[in-house]
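Contributing new records

If you add data, match the layout below exactly. Sequence lines come first and carry their own label; structure lines follow with theirs. Keep one chain per record. Anything else will be rejected by the validation script.
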Amino acid sequence: MESATETADAAAQAPTDAAADDDADTTAAAAAAAVEKQPGAGKARSRLRRRVLTGSVAGGLVLGGVLLCLPGEEAGRPAPGPAPGARAQAAVRTGAAAALPDLAVLIGEREARVRARPKDARSWAVLGAAYVEHGRRTADTAAFYPKAERALRTSLSVRPAGNTEALVGLAALANARRDFPAARSWGEAARKRAPKRWTAYPQLIDAYTGLGDHKRAKAALDRLLELRSGPAVLARAAAVYRDRGWREDAAAALSDAAAGAVSPAERAAYLERAGQLAFERGEREPALRHFQEAVRIDPDQRAAQAGQGRALAALGRTTEALTAYRAALAKQPLPQYALELGELYESLGMDRAARVQYGLLRERVRREAAGGVDGALVLGRFEADHGDPAAAVRRLGTEWRRQPGVEVADALGWALHRAGRPEEGLRYAVIATDRAHRGTVRSAPYLYHRGMIERQLRREGAARRHLEEALRINPYFSPLYARTARTALVALGEPSVARVPDFS
């Protein structure tokens, strides 16, 4: 049978079908309408948003409570929910997580549709967005991201004018590939064509954040909040709040998002992010509960399984932690998970097992590159600590010139230090940690890196302060390096107190 991507070759020559954008989307549009919230969330902080969201949810329940009673049916029987493909399409269009089985159904439906109607620009765009989400959830980027790009570009070629859906899809694909300049270009093109359509703004937030432009990220969030409310928007807001150091606001926004989620997969995604946030603050047990609940309601939530590994290792439950990491890697083989598992093995003295994971990390990065994913950040972090620091500096230096985000600043600063260039490294460590230089993220690993660089430079007071702060934020930030931070603090000793001159 002809594949959907092969059908793209014939799309430009196929006859136009005037009905391409109507009947097959009716059910999905209805499902999306049920999922989506009305505009109207202003710029108020999380407590106000919680009240707005609660009202929206309550209103949704009232509308959902209108019963459809046919002759012979019992009153009170609820109307059937949307079909799996419609659920997945509603989620993809609103930026929410979709269940993998639903995504598979949606992909099958849209592949069949574009084979039958190659001029259906909307179906090509929906198919491309579904490919992006499926590739992200499974880490099968080599298979799905090229197909996503082909489908989205086919959509644009079929309908070049006013096709914001394809532009937003291409921005989402670029963000997934960590190509933030391209994501910014596609997102800004979508915003220019339809400035009052909200869907471009989440992608712009991610692109601006990846480029280190937090001022524009915040402006994009403010505009998004003017145009839209609901769980997916609150989750985007939480990410911006976290990056600005507003962790309480981020936690409240994620709590609201999870409470308002309309599907198990969506709720699991927000719980996983809440677990990440809790772990970053050193809250091991709450983080573990969030991760466990996410996996319980969506067994395909592999990021939450890796999160369980992180939290269990911090709690000293290393056997369970290893099992959780292995389960996550089996279904979502991301290089970052391999790095974390390798470092856990190394902390346990299991060097051979660690080397196996590091080898898998390199292979995963190469495999992702076939899907267009930029693996410079994770590979640079790995090389700095476990490979060739000079190679890490070259790789991360190129990355910094292309997209100077805070994550890259931290990684480059640390790689320079590990390569014997701590003076240069401190410059980037300051960018990652100093509020005056964009470093508003309250990150224990970033502060650990800065403290260790300052210790190497014999700036003992600053080193002590930043290492103490790292351990105060999260004493369990790494099974390897939290231990090193404590050892370094002991070696630094207590600050000396100079004798006060006697002026009497």
